[in-house]
Amino acid sequence: MIAIGGLRFAYPDRTFMLTIDELSIADGEKVVFIGPSGCGKTTLLHLVSGILSPESGHITVDGTDVAALSDAARRRLRIMTMGFVFQDFGLIDYLNVLDNVLHPCRITSALKLDGAVRARARELCEAVGIGDKLHRPVTQLSHGERQRVAICRALLTEPNLLLADEATGNLEPEAKQSIMRMLFDFTAESGATLLAVTHDHDILKGFDRVIDFRELNRAEAA
Q1: 25-75 pLDDT tens trace
Q2: I need a labelling partner for 171 at 20 to 30 A (CA). Which of 8, 89, 102, 198 fits?
């Protein structure tokens, strides 16, 4: 599913550099990166999804060289094949819960918005405990509830690749385990690949691989 080789990336001020010689993640694999804030975990997710582009090296997702695509093609790839749970949620404040979950279908004609999709959105919201808040503005939700909206949106399109950036960071212990079961059940049923980053060691059980990001990033190791 994911193959990375000779990856080099740095932000313009050069205060942070990311260097990954080689990394492969198989179809259907559940991989989590651990490490403290600021070590580059989120940066790697943004590179894999095409939000950022590397200075050199390659990142292929399901055989597609993400960095070689145009901006429009990268956006289409994210919408059609990836589900992304952003650390800051990325919700639209003037939309209610249901419309935020359905938003991927409203920004491209490539995704069909029909009764089945609406029903799936409602089912996902019910599964994470926000089914009674479908028509509530997201600005009126708690931090944890906003996080659940972001997870439902990521799962709506049944993506081949699920990217989760601190997906349980603002949830109580019981809710964390519920969300992780949901993500694991989704990958088991669909065969999707799960790539997650966290500093929360309480959610590591159930992943196929746990990778210490500080050991993966050769720039930091150096």
Answers
A1: 999 999 999 988 888 999 999 999 999 999 999 999 999 999 899 998 998
A2: 102
What is the C-alpha separation between 215 and 222, in angstroms, rounded?
10
- So where are the chain's domains? 2-221
In terms of Cα–Cα distance, which of 39, 46, 45, 3 is closest to 21? 3
First to last CA, the chain: 28
| CB 145, CB 90: distance < 8 Å | no
Q: State residue 37 phi and psi, 5-degree precision.
A: -60, 140
Give me the phi and psi of 152, to 5 degrees please. Answer: -60, -45
CATH number of 2-221: 3.40.50.300
